[in-house]
Design goal:
The protein is built from 11 helices and 14 strands. The strands form 3 sheets. Strands 1, 2, 3, 4, 5, 6, 11, 12 and 13 form a 9-stranded mixed sheet that branches. Helix 6 packs parallel to helix 7.
Length: about 350
């Protein structure tokens, strides 16, 4: 079964210099490594030609963002398994074998991720994925090893393989057939949370997603937009609202939207005093976009709901992560009530 490691790049020359050597060194020679370039204007392509002759280059004619860039690139790549790897991820010896090996042994597993740790602090988990992603009843995503901005130290507490709700786009391994079955990433997202939307659509069709911590990678993070950038705040809030409408078919949608209006209003005022007015208005703009596009989102909801089969809710958290974190002061994943997680299914 052919595997392709696909790295999306846009003006990431420095990241390629720093991180690509580990990918080339630690990836089996039988696995094709491809850099899909989103029309970079820096010297990325020259660097690849001169320093990484074994890496294949796919040139895109425009910066299509994370979602659009991958959609276009993957249509041109023939493989059974896609490994979507951020350009700011360093991999370790033997990183790929546990991931592809487990997927080959169980056709039930559609997608997976490794344990993702911080490149800056290698003893800590990394924000974007940690040891697997989950989602609560109000549509808030969190990770095993990271809840909101609280990041855990890795002391082996999340080393068991586990079925999760979503896998991080920083290092996402997915069956090509399944990726195209659900039409890939939604390009209206541009960046941030598109992998959660993709995974939720897969879960609604009964697919299983896992984290295999035996494999470990290190992610720099913030390579596209830093947490201090208000555009990142805008995209996160906007896209999070979109994934709820498109994918959450349990309970009253109106109730969920009203709850999010309250939660997001509180978050906006919190950001006003902690991050500044740009972030406050970013949340407002996200809601204005959402309500302006609600009719389109409802049409998409109807479409995807019609294609839903027997949903796999493993990794869904029936509690409120907002209440747990801010009211009950449960800052780590292990403090959450285990009975509120939808029971895992077995991978084999």
């Amino acid at each position: 079964m052919k595997t392709a490691v696909v790295i999306l790049n846009y003006n990431g020359e420095e990241h390629l210099k720093t991180f690509l050597p580990s990918v080339v060194e630690n990836t089996p020679t039988a696995v094709e490594i491809i850099v899909a370039d989103n029309a970079s204007t820096d010297s990325s392509l020259s660097l690849l030609h001169e320093s990484f002759p074994s890496v294949k280059i796919l040139k895109l004619d425009h910066n299509y963002g994370f979602a659009g860039g991958y959609n276009r690139a993957l249509k041109m790549i023939e493989a059974q398994f896609y490994v979507l790897l951020n350009s700011d991820v360093a991999v370790t010896p033997g990183w790929l074998s546990p991931l592809i090996g487990r997927m080959k042994r169980s056709e039930k597993i559609t997608a997976c991720q490794p344990k993702i740790k911080s490149f800056r602090d290698k003893k800590s988990f990394e924000y974007a994925g940690a040891s697997g992603g989950f989602i609560d009843k109000n549509g808030f995503p969190f990770c095993r090893g990271r809840i909101f901005d609280h990041i855990e130290r890795d002391i082996g507490q999340h080393d068991d393989e586990r079925e999760i709700f979503w896998a991080s786009g920083a290092c996402l391994i997915i069956r090509a057939e399944a990726f195209h079955e659900v039409c890939g990433f939604d390009e209206t997202f541009f960046a941030h949370m598109e992998e959660i939307d993709l995974c939720w659509r897969l879960k609604n069709r009964g697919h299983s997603i896992y984290c295999f911590p035996e494999s470990e990678v290190y992610h720099l993070g913030g390579g596209t937009l830093a947490s201090t950038n208000s555009r990142k705040t805008y995209l996160n809030f906007r896209n999070n609202l979109s994934i709820i409408v498109r994918n959450d078919y349990h309970g009253s949608l109106l109730t969920k939207i009203l709850k999010r209006l309250i939660f997001d209003g509180g978050a906006a005022f919190f950001m006003l005093f902690t991050k500044g007015p740009k972030h406050f208005f970013a949340v407002l703009r996200a809601h204005f976009f959402f309500y302006g596009n609600l009719r389109r989102l409802l049409r998409e909801r109807k479409h995807w709901q019609s294609l839903s089969e027997t949903p796999n809710k493993s990794g869904f958290y029936r509690g409120s992560i907002v209440q747990d974190y801010f009211k009950d002061k449960k800052k780590v994943f292990g403090a959450l009530a285990t009975n509120l997680f939808v029971r895992q299914s077995r991978s084999t």
